[in-house]
Amino acid sequence: MSISTVEQVPPPGRLPATMAAWVIRPDRQGEPAHAMQLEEIEVPEPGPFEVVVRVMAAGVNYNNVWASLGQPVSVFRMHPEVDHHIGGSDGSGIVWKVGEGVTKWRPGDAVVLHGNHASYEDVEVHGFDPMAAPSQKAWGYETSWGSFGQFCKVQAQQLLRKPAHLSWEEAGSYGVGLFTSYRMLIDRCGLQAGQKVLIWGAAGGLGVFATQLCRLTGAECVGVVSSAEKGELVMQLGAKGWIDRCEFPDLECRVGETPEEKQRRLVAAKAFAKRAKAILGEAPHIVFEHVGRATFPTSVFVCRPFGKIVICGATSGFDLDFDVRHLWMRQKEIVGSHFANAWQCGRANALIESGQIHPVLWRTLPFDEMGDAHQLMYEGRHQGKMAVLVGAQQPDDGRGISGNVGDPATTG
Ligand SMILES: NC(=O)c1ccc[n+]([C@@H]2O[C@H](COP(=O)([O-])OP(=O)(O)OC[C@H]3O[C@@H](n4cnc5c(N)ncnc54)[C@H](OP(=O)(O)O)[C@@H]3O)[C@@H](O)[C@H]2O)c1
Fold first, then answer.
1. Quick check: is 349 in a domain?
2. Residues 113, 317, 277, CA angle at the centre, nearest 5°?
3. Nearest residue CA, atom 40 of ligand 1?
4. Is the CB of 52 inside a 6 Å radius of any atom of ligand 1?
5. 205 CB under 6 A from ligand 1?
6. What total of structural domains would you count in the chain?
7. Distance, CA 197 to ligand 1 centroid (Å)?
8. 108-140, pLDDT tens digit by residue?
9. 197 and 298 share a domain?
10. How many CA atoms lie within 13 A of 279 on its CB side?
11. Are residues 124 and 184 in the same domain?
């Protein structure tokens, strides 16, 4: 297969006819190593208020594990207008061509991409919250043309300045995890100094940013992880302590559990809550949830009276089963949250630019290992974030680059 290489890419302002991209097709959904295949595919043209970006690096997120599996719903039901799925909901790159009406960005601008997509025609976008717009979609998941191709197509409002001090892969790695955690904790929960937070999967893609946001806000958090190595990582990121969930083997809520298993789970939840309280000094004001079925009953139980359980995902299953008495008797709240709007993404990006929050990059992989990176994530064999080099030639390229870089030869 002939794949466009860096040398064949025309200068900013012009697009090649085709590009290499990692593609999922309706007839091969399954584990990522099988579902994601490298194909040569046409390069999209930007429409009005759209921008085509040459991708330098892309972040790996769980949503394209779901897209590969075709679960809980096939992505082809979300974007029936195309029969391919090019995933990738965050990334870094260079503006290559702008569509009609775009005035703020020009070819050559170094950018970071955020993944919220919504129509300018929806009134919610103008004065309420783009996340409430009927047209709202997660770019690179509910849409195609994400960052897993050499070029991607975004709305102009999805562009943010690339922080100068970061390499391409660092800049491409944090969008989904940071922006989602920011909305969950800062906007949806109003996180304050002195509050206590319990973070599930604290060494994962969301957790590494939730942990740093707690430190930055002056809140204290305990991170739940599954190894001592991950525990060390969350301590470095500013957690007050960590809990190895493997020490609580009866804690997981499983489908079809017997009354005896349920009883053992409650005993485990009490011991777990005691451990969290011993570390934090008090029960948590906020429980940071994205695991779903396996942990949700414990999250509701461990949360303090009038506290909040904020949830944005359900890796272990979305049919939740919990004792609602623990919720109402103690007047706790369940708060749903989903990605972030452009304003929130911009504020969170400023925390990266000022060096107050750092990307946590566990591994950088070459472009031809995109499917393997997702397979690692599917098997839970990763920590923090993984990034894949797309246009960037080697790790660490791009450091020092910001603003308009003009010719691609200057991008390393
Ligand atoms: N709505 C949104 O906008 C949005 C945005 C981002 C992510 N999400 C969703 O949120 C979820 C997490 O995303 P992520 O990027 O943080 O994924 P991730 O990097 O895989 O991290 C999740 C962590 O959760 C922990 N975990 C997994 N299964 C568990 C279980 N049964 N019990 C307790 N802990 C468990 C694991 O940590 P340990 O093994 O160390 O405990 C894992 O590292 C995914 O389902 C994703 O689709 C939603």
1. no
2. 90
3. 225
4. no
5. yes
6. 2
7. 17
8. 999 999 999 999 999 999 999 999 999 999 999
9. yes
10. 22
11. no
CA 23 – CA 146 distance, rounded (Å): 10
- By residue range, what is the domain housing residue 188? 177-336
404 shares a domain with 270: no
- If asked whether residues 161 and 190 sit together in one domain, one would say no
Per 3-state DSSP, what percentage of the chain is helix, strand, and coil (rounded to 5)? Answer: 30, 20, 45
Confirm or reject: Cβ of 37 under 6 Å from ligand 1: no
User: Ligand 1: does its nearest atom lie under 6 Å from the Cβ of 385?
Assistant: no
Same-domain status, 234 and 327:
yes
- Give a yes or no: residue 123 inside a domain: yes
**Ligand 1 pocket, residue 291 CB under 6 Å:** yes
Per residue in 295-323, is it b (16+ CB within 10 Å) or e — as a string?
Answer: bbbbbbbbbbeebbbbbbbbbbbeebebe
Give the residue, out of 60, 62, 174, 386, with the most ligand 1 atoms within 8 A of its beta carbon, to mutate for a pocket test: 62
Mean pLDDT by 10 residues, the chain (412 residues): 58 94 96 97 97 98 95 93 95 98 97 97 97 97 97 98 98 98 98 98 96 98 97 98 98 95 97 98 98 98 98 95 97 98 98 97 96 94 89 96 74 43
Q: What CATH number corresponds to the domain at position 141?
A: 3.90.180.10
Query: Does residue 164 sit in the same domain as residue 181?
Result: no
Measured in angstroms, how far is the CA atom of residue 82 from the centroid of ligand 1?
A: 29
Q: Which atom of ligand 1 is nearest to the CA of 384?
A: 19
What does the block give as tokens for 398?
A: 């791009």
* pLDDT attached to residue 407: 60
Does some domain include residue 346? Answer: no
- State in Å: Cα 92 to ligand 1 middle: 23
169 and 55, same structural domain?
Answer: yes
Residue 1, in any domain of the structure: no
Among 336, 368, 402, the domain-final residue is 336
